[in-house]
Design brief:
Elements: E1 2-4, H1 18-21, E2 34-43, H2 47-58, E3 63-66, E4 82-83, H3 95-123, E5 131-138, H4 141-156, E6 163-166, E7 182-191, H5 194-207, E8 211-213, E9 218-222, E10 227-231, E11 234-243, H6 254-257, E12 261-270, H7 275-281, E13 287-289, E14 296-300, E15 306-313, H8 322-333, E16 342-352, E17 359-362, E18 369-373, H9 379-394, H10 400-407, H11 416-435
Parallel strand pairs: 2-3, 2-11, 3-8, 5-13, 11-18
Antiparallel strand pairs: 1-9, 4-7, 5-7, 6-7, 9-10, 10-11, 12-15, 12-16, 13-14, 14-15, 17-18
Helix pairs in contact: 2-5, 2-9, 3-9, 3-10
Length: about 425
């Protein structure tokens, strides 16, 4: 059984982002040439692939990782850098499939996921500006009620980090804006430099014996008891295959591709702010995120730039002027930044699933082919959890977490390749209209 993919023309360099400009490692890996054998071949050099590789190498398996562009080229190196507890949205919806205990375990894994990132950074001494402190922002009073329920549940789950509800008059403790009516502080979530994390994890994987290859797009996969993965110049033969491409699967597997929808998300970075300016807008240097469907998320960089992200495009086409598109959103929150220069603007694709739960499992007709995708905006932590679960499953270790994720069915988006995005855009418009009620 073969699968072919047409690779679109993309620059193989990192996006022209603040992250690329401030990366602290200049890593270069060769292009695959010739034939290699390994226990596991991983396709995708983002957080999913890198962390699966680390987990497998630590268990003594030989691993080859193929990246079509550069390590961290996709969402892993472009995202907002927010490290927030939780996986999925409304996991209670899966109780009929995995039971109430299964739902509880998903919630606990959503907390564990952040700890995996913490431990990875500490173990390999990765310099990625990790900073603790996050605040959910309430756009309307009912959100504050939701936060109170969330906080009660987190305490019941044994969450060990400081949490605190903020009333309207307390909001200036965390954000210099009049836009919000309350918030919830969580000191167990935070923010970091995602590209530096990915590059640090690549170096860690290599130190463990993982063979990494860049500019090595997969052109064809021959499935079977031994998988053969073809690039333009080479072949990898492996007992197991991991597809960790997420929104950049690009037709490599039609079954998986139909279950994840690429959606554009965008970030701008201002010029460096003075210490007083930075303290005025985000006094405690937290990551912040509101509750709207087309949410705003923002934080300060290590050199005191405001990194402001949001929007969600399903057209597959980026705005011609990302800064022109995002700046009004930033000024709606911080109108006093009207004279601040925008130094960087960039975008990328995140992968969204219909039920907003990460898709982690193996192909039913090819049990030696594993996958992880569709993180729906929670990728920094959920990818690291996926790597742990995939590593356990491939190594033959009992993994209740992997089995729970694998049990949850994921629908294929209707409409085929060309109608899928417009149909979802209509659905999201409906949710935005409901926010006005």
């Amino acid at each position: 059984m073969n699968a072919r993919v047409h690779q679109p023309a993309h620059s193989s360099q990192h996006a022209n982002s603040y992250y690329a400009a401030s990366s602290n490692r200049q890593l270069a890996y060769p292009t695959l040439e010739g034939e290699l054998r390994a226990d596991v071949c991983i396709v995708g050099g983002g957080f999913s692939g890198l962390n699966t590789a680390i987990e497998l190498a630590q268990k003594g398996l030989s691993v080859v990782l193929l990246e079509a562009h550069k390590i961290g080229w996709g969402a892993s190196g472009r995202n907002g850098g927010q490290l927030i507890r939780g996986v999925g949205h409304g996991v209670e919806q899966f109780e009929s499939v995995i039971g109430s205990q299964g739902v509880r375990e998903l919630k606990l894994m959503g907390l564990e996921a952040v700890e995996i990132v913490r431990q990875r950074i500490e173990h390999f001494n990765i310099d990625c500006d990790l900073t603790w402190g996050y605040c959910d922002l309430a756009n309307k009073p009912s959100h504050l009620d939701d936060f109170a329920e969330d906080m009660a549940e987190l305490k019941q789950l044994g969450y060990r980090h400081e949490m605190r509800l903020l009333q309207p008059q307390q909001m200036h403790e965390v954000v210099g804006s009049n836009r919000y009516v309350g918030g919830m502080i969580d000191m167990g979530s935070g923010h970091l430099h995602p590209l530096n994390l990915a590059l640090g994890e690549a170096a860690a994987a290599q130190s463990l014996g993982v063979q990494l290859f860049e500019d090595s797009a997969v052109m064809r996969i021959d499935y079977g008891n031994e998988v053969k993965v073809h690039t333009a110049r080479g072949v990898v033969r492996a007992a197991n295959l991991v597809l960790g491409c997420n929104a950049y699967l690009n037709g490599l597997n039609n079954n998986l591709g139909g279950k994840v929808l690429p959606a554009g998300s965008y970030v701008i970075a201002t010029e460096p702010l003075s210490e007083a300016e930075a303290r005025a807008i985000i006094p405690q240097n937290m990551a912040l995120c509101d509750q709207r469907v087309a949410l705003d998320y923002y934080r300060l960089s290590a050199d005191r730039r405001l990194l402001f992200g949001g929007a969600c495009h399903y057209s597959g086409r980026d705005p011609v002027d990302i800064a022109g598109y995002m700046r009004p959103k930033m000024l709606a929150v911080f109108p006093h930044l009207k004279d601040v220069r925008i130094d960087y603007q960039w975008g990328g694709m995140i992968g969204i699933g219909a039920n907003r739960l990460p898709q982690i499992g193996r192909l039913k007709d090819q049990p030696n082919v594993f996958y992880a995708q569709a993180y729906s905006g929670h990728g920094v932590n959920a990818t690291h959890l996926a790597g742990k679960l995939l590593g356990e499953a491939i190594a033959g270790q009992a993994s209740n977490g992997f089995d729970l994720f694998a049990k949850v069915p994921h629908m294929t988006f209707p409409g085929g390749k060309h109608l899928r995005s417009p149909l979802l855009a209509l659905g999201m418009l409906w949710h935005r209209l409901k926010e006005l009620v």
